[in-house]
Amino acid sequence: QVQLVESGGGLVQAGASLRLSCAASTRTLGTYAMGWFRQAPGKQRELVAAISSGGTTTYADSVKGRFTISRENAWNTVSLQMNSLKPEDTAVYYCAATYFSGVPVTTQVGYDYWGQGTQVTVSS
User: What is the 3-state secondary structure (H, E, C) of 37-89?
Assistant: First the structure.
């Protein structure tokens, strides 16, 4: 069982940056594929970014060029650097993990473990 805890959310103005972190309880985070999802009010949860156990990344079109997912295996964390934030980025952001995938996992059902979420609010 892997526990995930997100942090770093908050209220910012459009154009600002935030860095979300996901701390995992496992010491073998390098063997997990990780993902960041978000869910805005009244909308379905959607993929934001994903990273394979080998470091391959993929992004939603809406965040390409603005968001960067990275992993710090030595610290058992995965981060999401969010730049040039827009009001439409407002959502609860969730971290997810699944064991040993050599490719980024882009579907919710592909993940076994989820964090509790952190709120990101971008004002215009």
Answer: EEECCCCCCEEEEEECCCCCEEECHHHCCCEEEEEEHHHCEEEEEECCCCHHH
Contact 73, 29 (CB under 8 A): yes
Residue 89, pLDDT score: 98
**pLDDT surpasses 90 at 100:** no
Enumerate residues 6+ apart whose C-beta is below 8 A from 36.
20, 22, 47, 48, 49, 50, 69, 78, 80, 93, 94, 95, 96
Dig out the tokens for 110 from the structure.
Answer: 């592909």
Dihedral pair phi/psi, residue 43, rounded to 5°: -120, 160
